[in-house]
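Design request, tokens follow.
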């Protein structure tokens, strides 16, 4: 439908969010007032400052005016380009691997994911741009992913399993991961069938010798290692690492969640954390408006308060990240960069080489041990841990404790039954 465009300008009323605004009047009397922030043109307008930001704004304005002059609504640019690309791909039938990756990333919005999807987006992009691409190259199908078959995928899984790199559960999970590449293609009618759908029976063909670890899945820090961590990290130089580690240990908050938390989620007065549900790994289990309340141990209160006062001083803006990037409190610390920094600055001073996130598993193990020594009923401990770990059921908590942490929930039961 034809339209008339008016009042095209760069809007800087909100210094944090610049955009190009314009008015569109259609022949049927409908008027729209779109805002273009730059994503449609691959221009990150609000990621820059000063002269660079002005230059990008002028570039964006130029692109918007060009589309309007051609009778195209800039807000529909991505949809228009996608339709053109899909039409071209349908015409050629063959879909190159790199094109399939672009379609997948756009389909799941992995270039701009919400907080709860950032880790999935990051890990999936790494997998498809490295390991899986290498495999597709080896079977000579980079030119057309629609030619990838169920047999190809089974071949990958069985080889990884045979080499001892992927156990049965990993293989099952990888089927779901690989399927992400084909779902958008089937949905957009670029493929007739998702080859991963036929791999459901692969479990019977895999070796079980790598399915379960000999003892437990996660490493737990010993008491001596915790004492060493306390003696070395509990100082001004390493306060950041110490506070983060103890948050994992006492509150059972995952490391990745720590990096998403804001200062406003720490309620020192009431000894608790108030987390937005969409920041957690368990986001799908909650309504987006749900707040999750987690208790803050008295020991952790002092540790966190000291860290917050040292790191933020008087400027304790609730919108700052609790564990932000090194130079900017408004930016999230990439957890993969954290691993590098931690090993370089603190890890080299410790006698153990265990992962920092194992402190969460250590805290859960010690909570079970200490409550058991106090005489608390095992079922009561399980119920508390289910709530604190945010598991969907007590059975998930039991699996975590027994399979992952190697804890005997009811010691002596079998002996009593025999007698």
């Amino acid at each position: 439908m034809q339209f008339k465009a008016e009042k095209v300008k760069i809007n800087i009323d909100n210094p944090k969010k610049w955009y190009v605004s314009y008015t569109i009047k259609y022949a049927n009397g409908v008027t729209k007032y779109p805002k273009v922030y730059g994503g449609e043109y691959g221009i990150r307008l609000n990621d820059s400052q000063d002269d660079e930001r002005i230059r990008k704004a002028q570039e964006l304005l130029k692109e918007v005016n060009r589309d309007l002059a051609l009778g195209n609504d800039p807000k529909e640019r991505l949809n228009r380009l996608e339709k053109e690309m899909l039409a071209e791909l349908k015409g050629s039938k063959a879909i190159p691997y790199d094109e399939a990756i672009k379609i997948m990333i756009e389909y799941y919005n992995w270039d701009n994911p919400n907080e709860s999807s950032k880790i999935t987006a990051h890990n999936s992009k790494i997998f498809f741009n490295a390991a899986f691409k290498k495999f597709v190259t080896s079977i000579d199908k980079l030119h057309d992913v629609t030619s990838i078959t169920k047999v190809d995928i089974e071949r990958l899984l069985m080889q990884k399993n045979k080499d001892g790199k992927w156990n049965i559960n990993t293989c099952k999970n990888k089927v779901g991961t690989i399927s992400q590449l084909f779902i958008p293609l089937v949905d957009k009618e670029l493929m007739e069938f998702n080859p991963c759908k036929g791999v459901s029976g692969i479990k019977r063909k895999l070796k079980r010798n790598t399915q379960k670890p000999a003892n437990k899945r996660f490493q737990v820090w010993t008491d001596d290692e915790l004492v060493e961590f306390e003696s070395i990290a509990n100082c001004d130089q390493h306060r950041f690492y110490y506070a983060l580690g103890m948050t994992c240990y006492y509150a059972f908050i995952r490391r990745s969640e720590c990096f998403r938390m804001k200062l406003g989620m720490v309620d020192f007065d009431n000894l608790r954390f108030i987390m937005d549900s969409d920041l957690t790994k368990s986001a799908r289990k909650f309504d987006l408006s749900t707040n999750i309340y987690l208790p803050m141990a008295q020991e952790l209160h002092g540790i966190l308060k000291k860290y917050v006062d040292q790191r933020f001083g008087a400027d304790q803006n609730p919108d700052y990240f609790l564990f932000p990037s090194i130079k900017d409190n408004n930016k999230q610390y990439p957890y993969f960069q954290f691993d590098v920094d931690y090993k370089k600055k603190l890890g080299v001073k410790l006698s153990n080489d265990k992962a920092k996130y194992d402190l969460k598993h250590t805290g859960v193990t010690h909570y079970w041990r200490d409550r058991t020594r106090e005489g608390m009923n095992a079922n009561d401990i399980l119920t508390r841990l289910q709530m604190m770990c945010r598991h969907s059921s007590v059975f998930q908590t039991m699996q975590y404790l027994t399979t992952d942490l190697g804890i005997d929930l009811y010691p002596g039961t079998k002996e009593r039954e025999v007698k």
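Comment from the thread starter after seeing the answer: thanks! The domain at 93-205 is CATH 1.10.150 (DNA polymerase; domain 1).
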